[in-house]
Amino acid sequence: xxxxxxxxxxxxxxxxxxxxxxxxxxxxxxxxxxxxxxxxxxxxxxxxxxxxxxxxxxxxxxxxxxxxxxxxxxxxxxxxxxxxxxxxxxxxxxxxxxxxxxxxxxxxxxxxxxxxxxxxxxxxxxxxxxxxxxxxxxxxxxxxxxxxxxxxxxxxxxxxxxxxxxxxxxxxxxxxxxxxxxxxxxxxxxxxxxxxxxxxxxx
Length: 203
Prior knowledge:
Blueprint: E1 6-9, E2 12-15, H1 50-57, E3 67-70, H2 80-93, E4 98-102, H3 106-110, E5 124-128, H4 134-141, H5 148-160, E6 166-172, H6 177-190, E7 193-197
Parallel strand pairs: 2-3, 3-4, 4-5, 5-6, 6-7
Antiparallel strand pairs: 1-2
């Protein structure tokens, strides 16, 4: 099996570096298909090294893209320290903006606040919020950290604001309109962007 480490989506080059995740979300696309676009299988036989990621990036015409995005079939921040190293190399080689799509558990994963280390490397972070409180979050996301995962995600969001230019929370439109509005209010109180993603059922 040939591993898909990098893939195109829109005007961005995406980096798929792990299949591990701290959540097992009920709506996750991994439960219904092998890839995010036709003909691209995002299941990895093993995690690529930093060197393999950079080599894979080099096969593309980078001038075509407007940003790099860490997003694949797993939680990118499972490999926080490798991401930091990859970001350093990407910034040096290409200078393009870098975005991370994440569940916001990085500080739980690492056991400390890692957001200062993202300063100057990460230009945007999109954090999956998915619920208006910790109980509902755990029911939907089935985090390995239990109900404390939700507050940790919001704390990570708040801390990211100090170090990253663009920070946003997102939810999937599988919840009631009142719940969506409650989530929007939380995002506004933190002072970050808010996005409603459309759920596509592939079953």
